[in-house]
Protein: GC-rich sequence DNA-binding factor-like protein-domain-containing protein
Organism: Russula ochroleuca
Amino acid sequence: IRDNFLDQLILPKVSKAVADWSLRRSDVPLRTLVFPWLPHVGLRMEELLGDARRKLKSVLRGWDITEGVPDDLPAWREVFSVGDWDTMMLKYIVPKLGSTLREEFRVNPRSQDMAPLERVLAWAPLLRGSIVASLLAAEFFPKWLEVLHIWLVQPRPNFEEVAQWYAFWKGVFSEDILALPAVHDGFTRGLQLMNMAIELGPDAPTKLPRPDHNRNSPAPTATTKGRTAAAAKSPPTRLQEITFRSIVEDFAATHNLMFFALWPCP
């Protein structure tokens, strides 16, 4: 009797409601039409979920990233296998996130617009960590490192401002994202670039190499030749031991960083 009741009265109505559901026209979330029945439909669950999954994919296919993350999307993750969920995100969402970073996001220390990056990071909890890392490695860090390099090759860069800028960007990302190897590598390359600029001193504008965005490993430190050239104008030993990492950490802790040039101004 129960099976007949489900087959003849309930499931046809639920299936029709799912088929008729529209993101723009419907007053209730798709989840509220489907999830309450899942504990009761037994072996029919896959049939019911199949229609709902197809409807959800259709929504994501046409989704505008500027509208944020659909409110009930996180709940749907539980009814997809890990592989199917990743495939759906890679097909319908990740290309849009990449396009947003590539076409709309700019690194501008004077007037930074964070909106495009924030739209992308809003999706991070729904994506595998390696996908987030790949997005940032491909579309964020090349722009970020290029601007850092331009800043460091100025005749008299303000290293206090550089350190504050670095600390700001590390604060943008969650601890989980910062722990991703590709993200950690990107910020490490930035630190190495800054340390190299210190070692080169007034020669940095002509000798500081541009970041190599084809590298899969952190940028190298200054060459032995570069260190030798900088050594002639090196500061006291204690100052030599201060790295940008310690400067930034001190700034983040105290918000009262003082930084002095490590070579005589020309």
User: Anything to note?
Assistant: The CA atoms of residues 101 and 183 lie 15 Å apart. The chain has two domains: 2-81, 129-254.
